[in-house]
Amino acid sequence: MQVVENLKVKEKLYIEKLDNGLTVMIIPKSGIQKKYIIWGTNYGSNDSKFIVPGEKEETEVPMGVAHFLEHKLFEQENGTNSLDTLTALGVNANAYTTNDHTAYLYECTDNFYEAMDEFMDYVQHPYFTDENVEKEKGIIGQEINMYADYPEWRVYLNAMEAMYHNNPVKLDIAGTIESISKIDKEILYKCYNTFYNPSNMALVICGDFKPEEIIEEVKKRLIETKSNGEIKRIYPEEPRGIVKEKIEQKLEVSQPLYAIGIKDSRENCNTENKNEIVKKHLSIEILLNLLIGRSSELYKNLYNEGIIYEQPSLDYEFSKTYAHVIITGQSTNPEVLYERFKKQVEKFKINGINEKDFNRMKKMIYGGYVKEFNDVVDEARMFLSDYFKGIISFDYIEEIEGINVEYLKQVLDNVFKEDKMVLSIVKN
Amino acid sequence: MEHKEQELKKGIKLHTINTDKFKTNLIAVFLTTKLDRKTVTSNALISAILRRGSKTMPTQEEISMQMEEMYGASFDCGLDKTGDNQVLKFYVETLNDNFLPQGGENLLKISVEKLLDIVFNPITENGKFKQEYVEQEKSNLKQRIEGKIDNKARYALDRCIEEMYQDKPFGLYKFGYVEDLENIDESNLYEAYKKLIETCKIDIFISGKINQNIEEEILKNENIMNLEQRTPDYVVSNNNIKEKKQENTVTESMDVTQGKLVLGLDVNIDNEDLKYDVLVYNSILGGSANSKMFQNVREKAHLAYVASSSYLRYKNNIFINCGIEISNYEKAVELIKKQIDDMKKGDFTEEEIENAKKGIIATIKTIEDEQDTEITYYLGQELTNHVISVKEYMDRIQKVTKQNVIDIANKISINTIYFLKD
Q1: What are the pLDDT digits (tens) for B107-145?
Q2: From the list B64, B67, B150, which residue is nearest A254 (CB)?
Q3: Which residue of A has its CA nearest to B370?
Q4: CATH number of B2-225
Q5: What is the CATH number of domain B248-421?
Q6: What is the pTM of this model?
């Protein structure tokens, strides 16, 4: 096992790639009762077109298959449901699907190993029937409808729609009622066999464990599988420009919700160099806080004028095929907010960045990342999702020191471009 | 882990939780006062005004800058309805000194001082709050009150509670009412603030690696020295038998895709000790993936994605939540009622009871693994006057029998069925 130690957060990561291709990461935490395990596959809602290893033809599946699979994997051949079995052990089990990965997990204090038997068994043994696939359509249909009533989710997805011509990040992770109606057990098996190969997966364990012992427990529970070779994923060509600058939807809300998106391109940074990605991500976080964070001039003015009444949430999201800045919140006048934000960006480009403010933000971002290592759940999830992006989570803590004003200025010029900005609004 | 409490003055308590499990220190100040239609809005506004500035940090940019400078200390406020009380909550979370790039900054002491300053030493102008701040926060609070409709599932729950507690303190909306705002100004709001500070129950919590003698520091703190002792004006949660009520059905329309169904149940118990039985009951009814709601409403009938229940222990109510196809309303209500009836008949196994207990105990065990959960746990004990150790809590759950759960099932009645549709 390789050991990566970080002296700043005083944590160690033990990492090993097993013979079957599975990556195992262990973060020991002494004195904590809570134990957490998460097993993910690098397969999300964006992977709907691919070539199965060994085949020549492309396979295209309906929207929402990765999420559907996540729901169905709990079903067992003997008629039991693994979610019930795990819950009966007193562990808190769950699963989720994102654009680029699907993960299964549980959190517990007792019965960790009994739960691990069931957990590792069900992820490795799919059992789909026509009947159990059909039944799930009603449940997922209600999940889709639930999201349709979340104005925050609508305003976000509409911003994706305005930025992306073809990239599937603009689609609902769960698909639509129409698209899931086409899913059957053959499709599920095909996707499972393609993407749930150990070489496409990673498992993270966080809690009071001895790494050498727990990794043996993992190995013991793995069934024999061969690495299935490279999966060729086909993503549509995405033009650099946006689709349209503004998009609006009507929903019954008290005040308009907004999402400002800035389309970025993964080509803007050297994807082979993971440190560059981390540095860029950190720089964008610093920039966003300088531009419109709680202590910024723009925030103060917008607040005093009653245009915003809460701190916007500021994010940079990226995977291997897309990257964008996304600013969301509620505002009495999103149009004005958007124009003022654009002006502030221009002002920064001309006047440069104040060194004192920059240093303060660096300290703040540093503290924020240290806090991520406070809880076994947050920590394990972070390691998993960063891993699928080619990043070891400690990198953020290490890279921040090396960022300077000149670098920040470069990122500002390259990413915060006016012709890449969109405004999405949901209002009455 | 060591939890200590100390009465600084009558009605003012300091709680310290010394632990080295975390990379952070969490400091909290809670002001608890009884929920009252006359003060609910002004209290909500006070909570917003205090965020705007103190005598030493007169603007919110100043507060933010100082927090950022402290390695991103997070300052946060909240407002809660806990039983018949309104609780104003203020938090600062900072890195503990072991995780600072340069040592020796003593962030704990500084953050305690800053938080106390924000809560007890607000910026004033001619003996009043700043007019500018009051006007801005009035308009922000108006937006927040009106924002009640934005999260439809939450709205349905709030509306169900309002229907169940008409003209009672717990039926009040925690952010108050728009029509009250008109009569509030910087002068009467400051008077309201002074009265609140003189009469409310004050709890200060510090959780983290506490090296120095923080108790002494706090006793010497000027803001604390200026506080008078008091007989705090809050309501100790008690268990009253509820009046028998006809089942009330309320349907409302809004622009929704999915129907939001909430059933508010009364739990008729008069004894704190029975609450452990109710926790087990709730877990079997709708508290987990093995529950009757999840299994029968979601997995077997496929009527919903969310199908669960939660127990509000301060008021002895259980709320059942479901998101359903609007046309399935009757079918869903009938099926949910069947689950409640099956519980009364004792239609559940010993195994279901054991599983429920395991789930509850696992949650109790992690209380000490999360700083905010632990603080909330001790605050809950303060407000109920019911002190019980984590260990004893688990023992009590362990002792619950099938008959106990059936007895609870037969003390439960449906108070209100609320449905939000298109």
Answers
A1: 999 999 999 999 999 999 999 999 999 999 999 999 999
A2: B150
A3: A375
A4: 3.30.830.10
A5: 3.30.830.10
A6: 0.94
